[in-house]
Structure formats: structure tokens, C-alpha cells
């Protein structure tokens, strides 16, 4: 994957995201801003509270706000889940991490609300404590600041938590779909000559998130086959011609989770007979043969690409990355990550 994938402003269509963010802020009654991995905002601040806006405009109080944001973001990354906490003014904030391939690329910062009086809720961590002198006195002695503070809306903890979970799921879905689109564009750039008058915008124009996923599936075998080469020992011609359709299908559809029943039907023979002659042809049963081939192909992807373990698992039809890692270790006695690291150290 390109390193630009780790730049959140390259993954998201910021114009569309800002419109969605405004709508989400309106529906959830939360103030929302999106920041990159450095904590720098990449979107406008939707529904910002006048009190918080005033505090952030003051160089002294803004430092406290930034420290709270930074610490809240770190806790969200550590737990890989929305983190609900209290800022130095006892205002509820939420840090929602955006993590791609185990890398923190940014966060949605939401909140700027207070919990309703008497509402029962789990204890919330207060990130910073306001000094007893100075800022707290300014709050108490400034009627306008006090009015702005009192105007901060209140929600129940349940409402806050439900909104946080919804934003987390929605954000991950949107980022995943955006990356699917970016992957298609990268594949196009690598696999096909691009004319000077043809831009990537022309390619993606008119595609919805739904059919982008379908296009990705159609391209998957092409992508994998571009990196996975068949060796002389893997010659597709087998001794028993009855089995040839099955071998052709296995090698052509590396992404699929192929069943023995489907291959038997493809060869127009019973499953039992297919099993017997397949074992005689290869010296192993069908499931072991397919697993070994997929592990061998995955080793080439580990060597030649920077695809993540989850992506390689998906490209070769393992469905679950954990199952892929377990299968790889079963046959290679090491994990895919260790194999890749060892291979790269040899270069």
C-alpha cells in the first residue's frame, strides 16, 4: 500500500466528510472535529460550543485543551475503542481512534457536553486538573464566561456512549470503503498504462461505495496473480486429465475458499472418487493441498508487497486473519510477520 494511505486527508473526501460531520454533530448533539495523527484538525469544528471556542482562542487556556485532546487520543489508541473522559473543566469529551493496519492515523474528537445531574454512570477520568487559582477564579468572576459555561448542553451517559459507539462504527466503515476505492486506483495505476488525458477522478467517477467493493473483488485475482508466479514444479498439467479442470480453477481463483464438493462437480465425478484420485495425484488430501498452496502464494505476497497480514488473508480467501496466521505457523513454524521480517533482513 502507498504511504499516502496513512494520511487521513488522502483517505477521506474532506468536502463530503465535513458535510457528514456537520450532520452527525446536529443529530448526536455533540461538537465534532477530525484530527490527524499529530492532533492537527483536518476538518472544521462542527457545532463547537461558545465556551470551548473562547477557551481555545486564549493561548493560555488553549494549552490545557490541547493537552486533554492529546491524552484522550492516546487512551483511545491504547484501547482501540472510543474513550470517554472529562476535560479540565469537567466537560465530557470523546476520543474516537482511526486505526489502519495497526497504525494510528487520526481521530474524531467529539463531546463538549455535560452529564445530566443525578445520572448514574461509570467513573470518568479527568485528564487535567485546573489550577485552584487563575483559570477557575476567572470562570467564577466573569459573568459572560459563566453564562457560556452554563449554556453547554447536557446529555445522559447512555446518550453519550451510544453516540460514541455509532461514530466509531460509522467512521471505520467509511475509512474502509475509502481505502477500497484508493486500492482500486492504485491497482489501475500499476496494472494499466494511463493516458495523459485520463485522471484517477475519471476512473472513480460514478462509482458508489457498494459497487466499489464489487470492483475490488473482481480485481482481486488480477492483483494477486500479478505478484504470485507459478514455478516449474507447480505446472498446471496433471497426469489424470479428469482432474485438470479442478487444478485450473484452483490456480486461477486464488482468492476463493474452494470446497472439494465444488471441484468434484466441476470434474463431473463423485466427491468420493475425486478425493481418491486427487490424493493419488498429489500425495495429499484436498484440504491440505489447497492450504499449502495458499501459504506458498502468501509467502510471495509477503516478499513482494507491503500488503498487511489482514489484506493477504483476504486476498487468498482465508477470511479471518487469525486463521491465516495459525495456518501459516502450522506449516512454516513461524508467523507471517516474522517471515516477512526475516526475508527483508536477507535483502
UniProtKB/TrEMBL annotation:
Classification via Gene3D superfamilies: Homeodomain-like
Keyword terms: DNA-binding, Transcription, Transcription regulation
Keyword Transcription: yes
A Pfam family the protein falls into: PocR
Domain of life: Bacteria
Annotated ranges, domain HTH araC/xylS-type: 244-342
Keyword Mitochondrion assigned: no
InterPro entries reported for this sequence: Homeodomain-like_sf, HTH_AraC, HTH_AraC-typ_CS, PocR_dom
Recorded GO MF terms: DNA-binding transcription factor activity; sequence-specific DNA binding
PANTHER family: ARAC-FAMILY TRANSCRIPTIONAL REGULATOR, HTH-TYPE TRANSCRIPTIONAL ACTIVATOR RHAS
Stated name of the protein: Transcriptional regulator
Lineage of source species: Bacteria, Bacillati, Bacillota, Bacilli, Bacillales
